[in-house]
Design goal:
The chain is an alpha+beta fold and 594 residues long. The protein has three domains: 65-172 and 196-222, no CATH class; 230-363, Ubiquitin-like (UB roll); 366-588, no CATH class. The chain contains 16 helices and 36 strands. The strands form 14 sheets. It has a four-stranded antiparallel sheet. Strands 31, 32, 34 and 35 form a four-stranded antiparallel sheet that branches. The longest helix has 29 residues, at 37-65. The radius of gyration is 48 Å and the shape is extended. It starts with a helix and ends in a 6-residue tail after the last strand. Residues 229-347 form the YoaR-like putative peptidoglycan binding domain. This is VanW family protein. InterPro entries: Glycopeptide_resist_protein (IPR052913), Vancomycin_resist_VanW (IPR007391), YoaR-like_PG-bd (IPR022029). It holds the Pfam family PG_binding_4.
Length: 594
């Protein structure tokens, strides 16, 4: 039988001399037994497996936490976007916003105690979904808990500012802008004073921050101060304003010399502030031109536009001509520098060529080539009567008027006031239902003739008013009166071609014709029967220059239908209706005794 000691190795030592023994075999002392091999290996395996399991779990957790573009645990407006891709997060957020009433509900805003409500769509107030998802995608994932990300809100600051000002009205105090003003040739400093008011940027930030809170948003007022200070205004008085009007300016050119007196300089020197309260001195070329207009006429030759005339009863184009003039806008900076100089106050200018605004080629393209309508009315009293003279005067003023496509012709605007200074005379007019003498009487007949010419040309009626009483020299319903400045006649050229107005007169008639390119085959009128006929009353008025006796006219209501013909059929109808009052039978003199 083999024992444990038999398994231990022995060591044979070298022989040594011994007084008592020879060749003695000495066994080696036994070492402690090593630990059991199998148990140790088992523990290592278990430990290794544990590490692997933990590592695998950690990898799964990391994979879970890093899934998608938006880190885990991130929410926006309560919506969990964690683990989603950007497109998924955008879709989820948009779906939430579409279902949220607070996004479309009116926003209550308070400004210094005044309230108003704003519709988000009216001021461009929206959640910027893409920017919000970008913000949500930033940062580290959270394995535990959540992280709320505020939505990115956008608003149109200008629309918001306009809506607030309209909704709350006047708030705060306006900033007093700085300026330098002239009293004659004496400059005076106007010092700025700060104000408190709405600031578009501050208002936008307040509304963006408080919009989705569910509470009223308070918009602050911001103090505004002018960019140009009081000290700088005083300096402008001494360094710009006073030197500018100390002496005349001189502009030299090949056509002559223009002297700009101090008074004209004072009128054209602009020393007022912009919205920010900044004063930037400048010469206003339009104001300067107006101030020296009579002197400019001696140097400049204005351009002449191409125009129409009538030759042989037909329109003819007269070519325009170029003009020459001073470019005051280009000279303005030099004039400002010279105005502040104590030495040379002379500026050399080169005359520029100015082309006509309208050339012959432009007129050719308008298609003014044929007579598209003409209308004539008869007048009584002969050509020498005041009423006839007024008709002729108006006709001469209108002849040659060109109405471009899309433009509206106004008779009052074209002729201006029709008074004594313009050559008009006293003739019967209707004032307050009474027939009495008045300057310009009779022009209503020309107006009716012009109205019918535009009517039968198929042009759009914009404004006209028939007479209160019916006169048989006019077509019923389709006629028009006029009275400066309250009653006007207007028509719009709604055709693609130009419209040229021609007028002609005889000893007892006035004719208006329209030249253009035909749009309609023809335009005709159909009338309804008269209805609601009323008899005239008799009225006695005191005899005198203001009383005009009449025989009286019946009153009635009638319709007129304008028919537009094209391709052999009526393609459009327009209805005109008017109610005529009965014209009283006026008797000038004392009422008969009862």
């Amino acid at each position: 039988m083999t024992t444990a000691s038999d398994r231990q190795p022995t060591v044979r030592l070298p022989q040594q001399a011994s007084p008592t023994h020879d060749d003695v075999e000495v066994p080696l002392v036994e070492s402690p037994p090593p630990p059991p091999v199998r148990r140790s290996r088992r523990r290592l395996v278990i430990a290794g497996l544990t590490v692997l399991v933990l590592a695998a779990g950690a990898g799964t957790a990391v994979t879970w936490a890093l899934k998608g573009d938006v880190p885990r645990g991130v929410t926006v407006l309560g919506v969990d976007l964690g683990g989603l891709t950007r497109s998924e997060a955008s879709a989820a957020l948009r779906a939430h916003l579409a279902a949220s009433p607070s996004v479309t509900a009116d926003v209550e805003v308070q400004v210094e105690g005044k309230g108003t409500k704003l519709r988000p769509a009216d001021v461009g107030l929206v959640v910027d979904v893409d920017a919000t998802v970008d913000a949500a995608a930033e940062g580290r994932p959270a394995l535990f808990g959540s992280r709320a990300v505020a939505p990115v809100v956008a608003v149109d600051a200008d629309l918001l500012d306009a809506a607030l000002r309209k909704g709350v009205g006047e708030v705060g105090t306006a900033m007093k802008p700085p300026a330098v003003v002239f009293t004659g040739l004496t400059p005076k400093a106007v010092h700025p004073e700060p104000g408190r008011g709405l600031d578009p940027r501050s208002s936008a930030e307040a509304v963006k921050a408080g919009w989705l809170s569910g509470k009223p948003v308070t918009v602050p007022l911001v103090e505004s101060r002018a960019t140009t200070t009081a000290e700088q205004v005083d300096r402008l008085v001494e360094t710009v304003a006073r030197p500018a009007v100390a002496a005349p300016l001189t502009i030299t050119s090949e056509k002559g010399t223009l002297t700009v007196p101090p008074a004209a300089i004072a009128k054209s020197l602009v020393l007022t502030a912009d919205k920010a309260g900044l004063i930037e001195p400048r010469i206003d070329p339009k104001k300067l031109r107006a101030a020296v207009a009579p002197r400019l006429a001696e140097i400049e030759a204005p351009a002449k536009d191409a125009s129409f005339t009538f030759a042989g009863g037909k329109p003819k184009i007269i070519e325009g001509a170029a003009g020459t003039g001073l470019d005051l806008a280009g000279l303005a900076p030099q004039l400002l520098t010279a105005a502040q100089s104590g030495d040379s106050r002379t500026v050399a200018a080169t005359l520029t060529t100015t082309a006509p605004a309208i050339g012959a080629a432009e007129l050719e393209k308008l298609g003014v080539k044929e007579k598209v309508s003409t209308f004539t009315t008869k007048f009584t009293g002969g050509l020498s009567s005041p009423r006839s003279q007024n008709i002729v005067t108006a006709a001469k003023q209108v002849r040659g008027a060109l109405v471009l496509p899309g433009k509206t012709f106004s008779l009052n605007k074209h002729t201006g006031e029709r008074g004594y200074a313009q050559g008009y005379k006293d003739a019967p007019v209707i004032v307050g239902g009474n027939l009495q003498p008045g300057v310009g009487g009779g022009v209503s007949q020309f107006t009716t003739t012009l109205f019918n010419a535009s009517y039968y040309a198929g042009l759009q009626d914009v404004e006209h008013k028939p007479h209160s009483y019916y006169f048989d020299r006019y077509p019923a319903v389709i006629e028009s009166t006029i009275f400066w400045p309250d009653l006007d006649f207007k028509f719009k050229n709604d055709s693609p071609h130009g419209v040229l107005i021609d007028t002609a007169y005889t000893s007892n008639s006035i004719t208006v014709s329209m030249w253009s390119t035909k749009v309609w085959d023809k335009v005709t009128t159909e009338w309804s029967a008269r209805r609601n006929i009323t008899s005239p009353p008799t009225i006695t008025k005191p005899a005198g220059p203001k009383c005009i006796a009449t025989g009286g006219l019946i009153g009635f209501t009638q319709d007129a239908f304008r028919l537009f013909h094209s391709g052999g059929k009526v393609v459009k109808r327009e209805k005109f209706t008017w109610k005529y009052d009965p014209e009283p039978r006026f008797i000038c003199g004392e009422a008969p005794a009862a």
